[in-house]
Design a protein that fits this description.
The protein is of the alpha+beta class and 191 residues long. The protein has a single domain, classed as Ubiquitin-like (UB roll). It is built from four helices and eight strands.
């Protein structure tokens, strides 16, 4: 556990309980792959322990929190750079070869990690509220599309973020299998 934190973890937890946070597209990918769910992410942040602190000259501070929702080890990396709206950057289950166990890296080191966000966590680029036509993801050889998602887009690197409320809605629809239909997809194979 990190002994001195430069933020108020209880404030972060309160915001997560109220779905007052954003998630990155990286987290959406983990949701689509069913590696983690929104309830698991939220339980990790509200009940877990911060095990790493990362500093980046442009991105600022981020924190790795470990939780065990229903006994399952889950890591969530988040930043509190945006006042009152923490951003969940990554969410995953720690595994070999990066992790020896849920608390210890296999290889020491590792990479550092108003109502809307002000700048992109990854590149510090300008952000714009958008309605994403499609989030496209592949899972076990199948293509899944989530349409008309309210999001925030980085105009510099293209990273997309969705709110905690939107994340809950997407997760609920995935869990329920609430697909609205199917479409034919044209595929080209590079030759």
């Amino acid at each position: 556990m990190i002994s001195s934190l430069s933020f108020n973890i209880e404030s972060i937890r309160a915001h997560v309980r109220q779905a007052r946070y954003h998630i990155s597209e990286h987290v959406v990918r983990s949701l689509m792959a069913r590696d983690v769910s929104i309830p698991e992410i939220e339980m990790t942040v509200t009940d877990g322990v911060v095990i790493e602190k990362h500093s980046h000259s442009i991105r600022g501070m981020s924190y790795l929190i470990l939780g065990y929702p229903e006994g399952k080890p889950v890591h969530v990396i988040f930043t509190d750079n945006e006042p009152n709206w923490p951003v969940m950057l990554f969410a995953y289950c720690p595994a070999f070869p990066v992790w020896k166990d849920a608390r210890n890296r296999q290889i020491q080191g590792g990479s550092s990690m108003n109502k809307t966000m002000r700048e992109c966590y990854f590149c510090a680029g300008e952000l714009k509220n958008i309605l994403i036509g499609n989030f496209d993801y592949r899972l076990e050889g199948k293509l899944y599309v989530i349409k008309q998602v309210p999001a925030i887009l980085c105009l510099q690197c293209g990273e997309k973020y969705v709110s905690g409320e939107t994340a809950r809605n997407i997760d609920m629809q995935i869990s329920a299998g609430s697909y609205s239909g199917t479409e034919v997809v044209q595929v080209l194979e590079y030759q």
